[in-house]
Design goal:
By secondary structure, the protein is of the alpha/beta class. It is about 40% helix and about 20% strand. It folds into 2 domains: about 1-140, Rossmann fold, CATH 3.40.50.720; about 140-305, L-2-Hydroxyisocaproate Dehydrogenase, Chain A, domain 2 (Alpha-Beta Complex), CATH 3.90.110.10. The structure holds 1,4-dihydronicotinamide adenine dinucleotide (NAI) and pyruvic acid. It catalyses: (S)-lactate + NAD(+) = pyruvate + NADH + H(+).
């Protein structure tokens, strides 16, 4: 499958690299307003291909996206230390105003996979600008936060993160909701699993893991300026779910008519992802506190779109 990546910075290049290393695409094309950067990323990643799977990497203008089935949108500005994702909105909405037309003209059949922040609102921006149906404009949403949650829970319980089934819901951002009440280790609720293994999930453990997930981006940006490996792998995972029509259940963001009483909103819930994009949305079992937190997260996002359209 041919995949386009618009925005060949840290996130775009990490996605291209993950796709090449995982065998997630037969062709990856980078487009960036910095043409030399796009070309350099393609050349550098192509040197990993002999150690990985067959994949052709190149760079070009928008017309090079012709035939792409998925286009990842990772163009725009990123957070500086201490900056929130929501503060990027007006700058990245402006970037998308120029990007989406170019992508749609060159690759009208492509699904859009949005990574630029604030990713939930940028997914709404991309939907409106593209005219595509909502199931074909997917934001990476909380796929990364879910990975962070599973990684920290797995480490606490002493099991592989792949055996942890837990989701982060709502905004990919400060108001996100860790869905503790539906979290499972194997088939067991995590609290029961932890108690059996001598790794109880106390209030202090919950608070540590919550902060570990919610503050991860701020910590990493403070230390190295940006985050890219986690989201790069997450984007490649979504592309593979689409390419192989996996019906994978992933926490991604699409525009929904209503969530918890908030109309016309993009945020993350567990969703079934395959060749047609998102084919179903699941509402997990939640405690009253989690339901209220999801509603509050939807309201934060809704408020941030005021004045945008
Ligand atoms: N969804 C998620 O979980 C994550 C999202 N992000 C977001 O991804 C975005 C990209 O982050 P980085 O790659 O670290 O930034 P970066 O600055 O390394 O790369 C952004 C690229 O976009 C390009 N660009 C800017 N305006 C453009 C335009 N009009 N047309 C074409 N290319 C354009 C720039 O030349 C640059 O190469 C940011 O908004 C960041 O917040 C970052 C990490 C995780
Ligand atoms: C930057 C960002 O959105 C993240 O690492 O979660």
């Amino acid at each position: 499958m041919k995949v386009g990546i618009v925005g060949a910075g840290m996130v775009g290049s990490a996605a291209g690299s993950a796709l090449a290393l995982r065998g997630g695409a037969s062709e990856v094309v980078f487009v960036d307003r910095n043409a030399a950067l796009a070309q350099a990323q393609a050349e550098d990643i192509s040197h990993a291909v002999p150690f990985a799977h067959p994949c052709r990497l190149s760079a070009g203008e928008y017309d090079a996206l012709e035939g792409a089935e998925v286009v990842i949108l990772s163009a725009g500005v990123a957070q500086k230390p201490g900056e929130s994702r929501l503060s990027l909105l007006s700058r990245n909405a402006e970037v998308f105003a120029s990007v989406i037309g170019g992508v749609r003209a060159a690759a009208p059949g492509a699904m859009l996979l949005v990574a630029s922040n604030p990713v939930d609102i940028m997914t709404q921006v991309a939907l409106r600008a593209s005219g595509l149906p909502p199931e074909r404009v997917i934001g990476s949403g909380t796929i990364l936060d879910t990975a962070r949650f599973r990684s920290l829970l797995g480490a606490h319980l002493g099991i592989a993160p792949q055996s942890v089934h837990a989701y982060v819901l709502g905004e990919h951002g400060d108001s996100e909701v860790l869905a503790w009440s539906s979290a499972r280790a194997g088939t067991e609720p995590v609290a029961r699993f932890g108690a059996q293994l001598g790794a109880p999930i106390t209030e202090a453990v919950r608070a540590r893991i919550d902060a570990g997930v919610r503050r991860a981006a701020y910590r990493i940006i403070e230390g190295k300026g940006a985050t890219w490996y986690g989201i790069g792998a997450g984007l490649a995972r979504i592309v593979q779910a689409i390419r192989d029509d996996q019906g994978a259940v992933l926490s991604v963001s699409i525009v929904a008519p209503e969530v918890e009483g908030v109309p016309d909103i993009a945020l993350s819930l567990p969703r079934v992802v395959g060749r047609k994009g998102v084919s179903a949305t699941l509402m997990p079992e939640m405690s009253e506190t989690e339901t209220a937190a999801l509603r509050a997260s939807a309201e934060v996002l809704k408020e941030s779109t005021q004045g945008l359209w």
